[in-house]
Amino acid sequence: MKIGILGGGRWGQALARLAMAAGNDPLIAYRDKKDKPPHILPSTKDVPSVSASCDLLIVAVSASRVQAAMEMAEPHAGNRVVVAGRGIDADTGRWLCDVVREHSPVIRVGTLAGPAPVEEILNGGLCAGVVASPFQEVRDMVQQALHSSRYRLYGSPDLVGVQLASAAVPPLAALVGVTTSLGGAGVGMHAMVVARGVAEYSRLATALGGDAASLAGLAGVGDLVAAQGQSGHPSFEAGKALLTKKRRKTAGEPGPIRIARALVKTAESVGVDIPLTQALVAMADGLDPLEAVQALMGRRAHDE
Question: 160-297 falls under which CATH superfamily?
Answer without folding.
Answer: N-(1-d-carboxylethyl)-l-norvaline Dehydrogenase; domain 2 (1.10.1040.10)
